[in-house]
Write a structure and sequence with these properties.
alpha/beta; Rossmann fold; seven-stranded mixed β-sheet; two-stranded antiparallel ribbon; 37% helix; globular
Length: 233
């Protein structure tokens, strides 16, 4: 079994890229965001332009990355699922931010697939080692391609945990979806079965309720539609 976990707004309590731009870029980054939201540019081009607007130096950015707040209930979830599943953070955000935030929170090393930040010719730049020319939505990280590569020829079950637009394409292809916020609304609109969650404690409660095979959760026996009681987003 493979868990594909989004970072911004899912593992982190808010979108770390937006927070970075709010602190270290001029307000014009919002106009670029609007162009992406209207479909005029790809997510990859949107992020490239926005990152080039950042004025903070390396020390300032590193200090900011250390302040990114994470869902404190993630660690019990991780400790449980790592007994029987592969876990990867797959994000269309910034890998350096994710690694720094994980280290600051004391979370153990987890494979991270995200966009790579560097400082070149006096400007911050992003490159996209996990992009795919065939990506349907032009993301910096093609989550569908990453999930395919990680699951491999074994075709192991894939579980997505996410909250936003970068997760929408993958949501229609995986075996099970935990969703909140705009991803939950998308799944409802597209009739994609999902479990709504607020934190990883909700996800853990749901997984522990799955039928077991040899003492481990058996995704093959889980109903495809299972909303959490009391979820509001």
């Amino acid at each position: 079994m493979l868990f594909v976990i989004d970072f911004d707004g899912t593992l982190s309590l808010r979108d770390s890229v937006d927070a970075l731009l709010e602190r270290h870029a001029p307000a014009e980054w919002h106009a670029i965001e609007a162009e992406w939201a209207q479909g005029r540019i790809t997510a990859q081009e949107c992020m490239r332009q926005q990152i080039r607007m950042i004025t903070g130096n390396e020390e300032q950015l590193e200090r900011f990355f250390e302040t990114i707040r994470l869902d404190s209930t993630f660690l019990p979830f991780l400790n449980y699922v790592q007994k029987f599943a592969q876990v990867a953070i797959v994000s269309d955000g910034i890998s350096r931010a994710i690694h720094t935030a994980l280290e600051s929170a004391g979370f153990p090393g987890i494979p991270v697939f995200a966009n790579r930040l560097s400082f070149l010719h006096g400007k911050w730049e992003l490159d996209f080692p996990n992009s795919d020319v065939h990506c349907a939505v032009g993301s910096g990280v093609c989550k569908c391609a990453v999930a395919r590569n990680l699951s491999g020829a074994s075709a192991q079950p894939v579980v997505l945990i996410g909250d936003g637009r970068s997760d929408m394409c993958l949501a229609g292809q995986v075996d099970y979806v935990f969703a909140k916020e705009s991803l939950a609304r998308y799944c409802e609109a597209e009739a994609i079965p999902f479990t709504e969650f607020l934190s990883f404690s909700d996800v853990l409660v749901s997984i522990k309720s799955w039928p077991s095979s040899q003492g481990l959760p058996n995704l093959a026996s889980v109903p495809k539609q299972s909303k959490l009681t009391g979820a509001t987003r």
